[in-house]
Recover the amino acids of this structure.
């Protein structure tokens, strides 16, 4: 079957419905939103992931992927978390999470320790190396965003940040309000 344009580029093609790329359009129309709105959101997602290089195998030319970096970030902010806690916060597949945690532990970025009251439970936390690594990665990420914001006028930066806050608020709000 030919690859549907909407699978990664633009528009919809015959066969996209069965491939899971553009389908449900008829249902979307009757729900009060249409293919043009869906296409606009998907187009923005493609633009933003490309702009930040999020489709690269490794994040910001580091040795970790975006998912691995996010797990490190979560552990920095929530030390002594359980894998279950990370699964709930990130909605990552259990097997994938297990492989990532093992990889990060082998790299010396995190450690696992037994819970004081329940030795079967493993608590995760960043090692010193993990804290240092994440700090450098955060600096690199901030520099990347600074580079995106610098060419914009102050009023444009303000509008951009307000628009991003609006997107976050709309997509975080209870549905249908």
């Amino acid at each position: 079957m030919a690859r549907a344009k909407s699978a990664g580029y633009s528009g919809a093609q015959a066969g996209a419905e069965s491939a899971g790329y553009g389908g449900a359009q008829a249902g979307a129309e009757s729900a009060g939103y249409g293919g043009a709105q869906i296409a606009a959101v998907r187009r923005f997602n493609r633009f933003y992931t490309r702009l930040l290089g999020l489709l690269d195998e490794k994040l910001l030319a580091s040795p970790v992927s975006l998912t691995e970096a996010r797990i490190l970030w979560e552990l920095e902010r929530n030390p002594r978390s359980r894998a279950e806690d990370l699964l709930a916060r990130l909605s990552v597949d259990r097997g994938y999470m297990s492989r990532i945690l093992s990889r990060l532990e082998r790299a010396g970025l995190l450690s696992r320790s037994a819970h004081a009251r329940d030795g079967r439970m493993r608590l995760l936390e960043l090692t010193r190396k993990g804290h240092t690594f994440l700090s450098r990665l955060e600096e690199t990420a901030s520099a990347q965003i600074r580079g995106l914001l610098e060419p914009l006028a102050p009023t444009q930066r303000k509008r951009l940040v307000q628009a991003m806050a609006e997107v976050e608020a709309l997509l975080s709000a209870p549905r249908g309000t």
